[in-house]
Structures are given as structure tokens and as C-alpha cells.
User: What shape does this take?
Amino acid sequence: MAKTRNTAEKPLGAKCPMCKGYMLRVDECSPNPIYVRGDTGEKRYERIPFGQETRIDTSRLGERCPDCGCKRGHYHHEGCDIEECPICHRQMLSCSCEFYWYDDEVKKYTSRQARGN
Ligand SMILES: [Zn+2]
Ligand SMILES: [Zn+2]
Ligand SMILES: [Zn+2]
Assistant: This one.
């Protein structure tokens, strides 16, 4: 789990692969819902906004997510430490769910591969 964040070099934050915004400047992520392909076909999940996590208490974290910078009540950016996976309810950053979403920039569906560490 060696994930480097060059926050000093990139004050805008990393570019979010879902909404294409810079994480620390964009108030919320856009692509929602996400989809999972399974044996019974496609299943749709709504992402979990900042403040509605069940695995951790975020009530004292302030009005912006300390990791991705989204506003409370809005969607985290993909790759955020805090975002809870709506599929497995673990930390989305480190869970192994494979899901996909509609990428508005390239006008097609794109998927997140399970992150191997
Ligand atoms: Zn985003
Ligand atoms: Zn976040
Ligand atoms: Zn998951």
C-alpha cells in the first residue's frame, strides 16, 4: 500500500478520474451512480456522500472532506481515503470491488480495476 501523494507539488490535488476535476478545487464529484456487472446482470449503486458513511464517524471532520476536499453532503472524488464503497461498505480506496461509470469526457463507460497492491 505505497501510495504517494505529491500534495506539495500539486496544490490543486490530484485529478479525479471520474469528474476530471482537481480534487481540492472541485466541490463534489459528478459521476454517480456506479455499476457492477454480475451473474444476474448489471447492478446500480448510488455513491455515498461525505457525511453519510457508516464505517466511520465523519461528524467532526469539518465542512470539507480532509482528503479529497469535497463539501459535506456531496460526493467524494474517486480515490478518496474517506469514501465508503456502497457495494462492500469498506474503504473504497482499498476495497477490491470492480465497478464502472459513464465517463462524460470520453462518452463511454469506463471501469475501475481492482487495485492490486
Ligand atoms: Zn471527482
Ligand atoms: Zn473525500
Ligand atoms: Zn467495495
About this structure: The beta strands are 34-38, 41-45, 99-103, 108-112. The chain has a mean pLDDT of 88. Residues 11-112 form one domain.
